[in-house]
Design a protein that fits this description.
Elements lengths: L5 H18 L2 H8 L7 H9 L18 H13 L6 H14 L4 H12 L4 E5 L14 E3 L2 E10 L6 E8 L2 E8 L5 E4 L9 E10 L1 E2 L5 H36 L1 E2 L2 E2 L4 H29 L5 H27 L9 H11 L7 H15 L1
Parallel strand pairs: 1-4
Antiparallel strand pairs: 2-3, 3-7, 4-5, 5-8, 6-7, 9-10
Helix pairs in contact: 1-4, 4-7, 4-8, 5-6, 5-7, 7-8, 7-9, 7-10, 8-9, 9-10, 9-11
Length: 365
């Protein structure tokens, strides 16, 4: 793991923030969401040029090899601008799993492709750390081919590789499937259509069964994914909170800005507490993972439900405080609310994170 000092990390954050503010305007964001991928591919390539897609990839494969703190920094900025790229799936979870497996030329090429921005990896299945486990998936292996179907694969239709995690009896299989003509894709509805969910069907599709990983590797990848998602939700919550505060300052009613009304002041204060609490929890989780702390999983679970709940609460209240205009798709608050709804159950819902957090306390007691 490369040690990136605070000065370098802030320089990276500043460069990323300036790029996203300048190039990913609301109009550009909406245009990308309407495209085939659900995002602007030029943004993905620019992130690669900045070295940020390889933030969690070892230097041996061309990456930066940064810590979870560095990953969280990138995720927070991407969340702030609502960038709908598959960063967590491709650059955090998939790379963690691939680096944990027995290496071969194919895996090394995929990792280098991720760093260069030429490869994306979608995840699916019914086992953790699939972002949205599909309880009805019925995947079967026949030698070096896979058949069956799986739903809830974000960006599945456009991905260069599918990383499938599914249970076979009491065991979990980890299978890598390259883009192939035998894969049938059916788009699915989602709260946030930019995430491009799909149902994937396989008919003796060539695949590679990955070896060398352990159950601990699966759990580690899940924890890193939750920490990155928490940071992303925090960045988004802070952004829409800022938009809402600006609106309260500039929207006049009865000859005065509505932000001067006591009821709205109290609501804004409560939301600020939500945003700051989520920020603290997300950064604490990333720091605990970076230090391999004994309580890292507990910190991640805490961030999991705090950031999930905060993002949901802030986006819902933002719509209320904007009035009827924010219910329309033309208003940016609507986009943040959709993203919040879409990520409510990603990598576990708030209830599952709370249960994990309480169990961790019981074990340590």
């Amino acid at each position: 793991m490369t040690q990136i000092d605070d000065a370098d990390r802030e320089a990276m954050r500043d460069a990323l923030s300036r790029f996203l503010r300048a190039d990913l305007t609301e109009d550009a964001l909406r245009l990308g969401m309407q495209g085939e991928l659900g995002y602007d591919i030029s943004v993905w390539h620019q992130l690669a040029e900045m070295g940020l897609l390889g933030i969690a990839v070892d230097e041996a494969f061309g990456g930066i090899g940064g810590s979870p703190v560095d990953v969280a920094m990138v995720a927070e900025e991407l969340g702030h601008s609502l960038t709908p790229v598959p960063f967590i799936e491709t650059c955090v979870i998939a790379t963690a799993l691939l680096q944990a497996c027995e290496h071969n030329d194919a895996i090394e090429q995929i990792l280098r492709g991720v760093v260069q921005g030429s490869v994306t990896v979608a995840l699916g299945g019914n086992a953790s750390p699939a972002p949205y486990p599909d309880a009805n998936c019925n995947l079967t292996l026949q030698g070096d081919a896979i058949s069956g179907e799986v739903s809830l694969v974000m960006h599945g239709a456009s991905a260069d590789f599918l990383l499938l995690l599914f249970e076979v009896g009491a065991a979990v299989q980890l299978v890598l499937v390259p883009k192939h003509e035998s894969i049938a894709t059916e788009p699915q509805k989602a709260n946030d259509p930019a995430l491009r969910p799909a149902k994937m069907r396989f008919d003796l599709t060539p695949c590679a069964v990955l070896q060398g990983w352990t159950a601990d590797d699966l759990e580690r990848a899940r924890l890193h994914g939750v920490a990155a998602l928490s940071a992303q939700q925090t960045g988004a919550a802070r952004a829409i909170f800022g938009v809402t505060i600006d609106y309260l300052k500039t929207r006049y009613q009865f000859g005065r800005p509505i932000g001067s009304f006591q009821a709205l002041k109290h609501m804004a204060a409560d939301l600020l507490v939500e945003v700051e609490s989520a920020t603290s929890a997300a950064r604490a989780a990333a720091t605990a993972l970076a230090r391999s702390s004994a309580d890292a999983s507990r910190s991640v679970s805490l961030a999991g439900f705090i950031c999930n709940d905060a993002f949901r609460a802030v986006t819902a209240q933002a719509i209320q405080m904007h009035g009827g205009i924010a219910y329309t798709q033309e208003h940016v608050a609507h986009l943040y609310w959709r993203r919040a709804r879409a990520t409510l159950s990603m990598l576990g819902d708030s209830e599952s994170h709370r249960e994990a957090y309480l169990r961790a306390w019981e074990v340590s007691a």
